[in-house]
User: Fold this.
Amino acid sequence: MIVQKYKDMLQGKSVIRQLSEFATQRGKEIGYENVFDYSLGNPSVPVPQAFTDTMIRMLQERNPMELHGYSQSLGIPSVRDKVAASLNQRFGMNYTGNHIFMTTGAAGAIAHAVRCVAEPGDEVITFAPYFPEYAPYINLTGAVLKVVPADTESFQINFEAFEQMLTEKVAAVLINTPNNPSGMVYSTQTIQEMARIMREKEAQYGHDIFLISDEPYREIVFAGVDAPYPSRFYDNTLSCYSFSKSLSLPGERIGYVAVNPACTDADLISVMCSQISRGTGHNCPPSIIQLAVAEVLDLTADLSVYETNMNILYKELTDLGFECVKPGGTFYIFPKALEEDAVAFSEKAKKYDLVLVPSDSFGVKGYFRLAYCIDTEKVERSLEAFRKFVKAEY
Assistant:
């Protein structure tokens, strides 16, 4: 007999993926260039030329077994050392390679981090709005995801609700900054206050409460925005990173867990991750990609296009009467819909070939997300579609 819980999950297919499939099908009818597809957060800028050059050089010059053989279960030691050195230089940390565990993207990093610190039945808190896949990431470990309601005035943390929900059952708090879907970046003040509350609760309950910091958008921060590194402010932090967005490499599935050297059992957690891999299958990410990213750790793709797109959309949407907290990073914007039912709102938008994601699956009602990782020319052409949509429907 097949497992019922996974069979049941077939009825809850990702809304984002469904909309992306709609956009693809609609594109076959009218040309994809005429579909304003804001559904999927797939980086739209090219990888840095230095990464491509590195791949070519390695394929031409290095031993094929080194490039294509299995890596060690924790990742290639030289890569881990370079990741640690880069983080130390950028953020004033004191990681060593022993605190780095290489993963198949940020999803793989979270899969390991949660299993390191949360037993079945423990609670993991996150904050709305949140990435919908957090639910299966957490709940399928046997832990239980609890969601703090959103502070829709700022999309920072609703501290009153957070403190009430931070009970003795909580083993970890999962944050995502810069945030998908809101585009907001938690300020230094926000991170400091969160850390203060968590330290107080650790002392009150007499057990560790870990911070799992999901950071795939770390490098996409707009001019003048305060973007602190959470591990600087809370010892029991596991940073989960992906190169998917910074280097435009989502298909290569490469990232890492960085264990704060000051956290409880810091020297054990990476080694524990290698054991967790035996049960999850998230083991030994591609050797060639590990080696290649290690050569370009401090480079990024040209991420400036995302701020350009954000400014265009923010101005137009607010001019049209949408309420919207201005994003501080990522390639998402999260306006309030023009009616209470965001699903109905997004369904009406399809008539104007605008593919917008309703906010319900992000844990907030009445908003919608645009993933503006598309060509700026297409963003500009979409503005007339927004104008027609708003005029005709609202």
Observations:
- The two ends are 51 Å apart (CA to CA).
- The CA atoms of residues 86 and 297 lie 7 Å apart.
- The mean pLDDT is 96.
- The chain has two domains: 4-47+301-393, 49-294.
